[in-house]
Design brief:
363 residues, mainly beta, 5-stranded antiparallel beta sheet, 28 strands, 47% strand, globular
């Protein structure tokens, strides 16, 4: 009798481990369908290793120095790298060169947070349910900062499906949405070709008629965008109000990170039976989820990772530069044993951590 394949079984192009090893980085993906945030690292120049952790419906990811933020169903979770804890991690000592530990949880409520990004004002979030950009803090569920001109009021109605955010000089500058609509889910009937790209500073619509735009990003002062419904990476001419296709991939693209001259792009598998995505033309081409690698100077696809089990959808993709093999603690009990201070880190014994969690009387 054949054994079933392991969870998150994947295949990948032979050059992908070598590329990640040479770049000295780790990829991070979020998949709300599988309820995981996954680190993808090169074990050496020939093999990849994955580290999945449980999060409730994870979507947007944001990396800033030693911090990693994850948008989940009802919260935004912030993890921080504790390198002193990595070296002495009891279960796998001398394995990780970094260790991300949960350090703060912001209770936003169910607001369908999509993209996240750190900026000069703090942690920015695309609040899709309320059609606005907001700051995440410890005082309010969210602090609204900007909304499209055509949105007449803040309401929990997902009026335009605001989803993507590009930062420039530490502040949100460009956003993507699936429609310029001001009614509850008004974007849905025209989702295949009603998408827009907006300039946050001017409030103007730069491009319209887009096939489900996501993930605007500015790299080297060039604005890139993913057109999810056609599987395209495009570069936007901000002066002319047009774009050119850089690369096309066989699936629903969403989530993107740059390391050096390479772009890593998330790819989702769409089922033709899906009520939301089944009518998209790309659904017939979309047969797997994974990651595509584009060499940016030439627009060539130079590598890939394809999931065979467990993962059918990817929302976001980020990169951890300078970290070949980071570890990550989820929100289960184990992270409570790891104590870090600015100068060092400590691991409590399991009995000590259990006693503390049981709430025994202090002497």
């Amino acid at each position: 009798m054949n054994n079933p394949p392991p969870p998150f079984n994947c295949t990948y192009s032979p050059n992908l481990p070598e590329l990640l090893w040479q770049l000295g980085c780790t990829l991070v993906i979020s998949t709300y369908q599988a309820g995981k945030v996954i680190f993808i690292s090169a074990q050496d120049a020939e093999r990849l290793v994955q580290l999945p952790r449980n999060f409730q419906t994870p979507m947007g990811l944001a990396v800033d120095g030693h911090r990693l933020a994850v948008a989940t169903r009802n919260e935004v979770v912030v993890l921080a790298n504790a390198p002193d804890l990595a070296e002495s991690y009891p279960r796998q000592p001398d394995t990780y060169d970094a260790l991300y530990m949960p350090r703060a949880v912001y209770f936003t409520g169910t607001v369908n947070t999509h993209d996240l990004a750190w900026g000069v004002d703090g942690l920015w979030a695309v609040n899709t349910l309320f059609s606005c950009l907001a700051l995440v803090d410890d005082t309010y569920s969210f602090r609204p900062q900007w909304q499209p001109r055509f949105i007449s009021e803040l309401a929990s109605e997902d009026r335009c499906h605001l989803n993507g955010m590009a930062m420039l000089d530490g502040r949100p500058r460009y956003v993507s949405a699936l429609g310029a609509t001001d009614t509850p889910r008004g974007w849905s009937p025209g989702k295949v070709s009603g998408g827009i790209l907006m300039d946050v500073e001017s409030g103007e619509v730069m491009l319209d008629g887009l096939p489900m735009p996501h993930t605007p990003r500015v790299y080297d002062d060039r604005l890139y965008l993913l057109l999810s419904a056609t599987g395209e990476l495009v570069c936007v001419d901000r002066d002319a109000g047009s774009y050119e296709v850089v690369a096309k991939m066989p699936g629903f693209v969403r989530g993107m990170a740059r390391v050096g001259d390479h772009l890593f792009i998330g790819l989702s598998r769409l089922r033709t039976s899906s009520r939301t995505f089944g009518d998209l033309p790309i659904a017939k081409e979309s047969v797997f989820s994974g990651v595509y690698v584009v060499y940016l100077p030439g627009g060539h696809i130079v590598g890939h990772l394809k999931y065979m089990t467990s993962c059918e959808e990817i929302y976001d993709l980020a990169a951890l530069p300078g970290m070949r093999r980071p570890g990550m603690m989820g929100l289960e009990h184990e992270h409570r044993r790891g104590l870090s201070i600015p100068t060092t880190g400590f691991w409590a014994r399991e009995t000590e951590a259990q006693d503390a969690s049981d709430g025994e009387d202090a002497p």
